[in-house]
Write a structure and sequence with these properties.
This protein is about 65% helix and about 0% strand. By secondary structure, the protein is mostly helical.
């Protein structure tokens, strides 16, 4: 019985995290015209998945706030990186997007 419950909860985590990842990436593209990396978005959601699951069960009113925090974190850290001279899928398809790049100053 224990193995069955572990499998059941693994499926729930997988479905929940994948739906959050793709919804957040879709919102980034539609509203902010930013490309989101699947891998970076998955890492962000992985950090929050236990909190999300516990809040759905215990404090449903806190889930919205947590999802907004995840969206902000994906928006900030989940941008798709560009390699010099390489086109991304969105470039090939001709989708309009903005690439934000901050200049970093390194200590000498």
């Amino acid at each position: 019985m224990s193995a069955l419950w572990k499998t059941y909860f693994a499926y729930i985590r997988l479905i929940l995290s994948s739906s959050i990842i793709f919804k957040m990436r879709k919102e980034l593209l539609e509203n902010y015209e930013l490309e989101g990396s699947e891998i970076k978005s998955a890492q962000v959601v992985k950090e929050y998945i236990k909190k999300i699951y516990l809040n759905i069960i215990n404090k449903p009113s806190q889930v919205t706030k947590l999802l907004i925090d995840i969206f902000k974190c994906i928006k900030k850290n989940g941008r798709k990186t560009r390699k010099k001279g390489k086109k991304t899928l969105f470039d090939i398809l001709g989708v309009c997007h903005h690439y934000q790049e901050k200049t970093c100053e390194f200590a000498a």
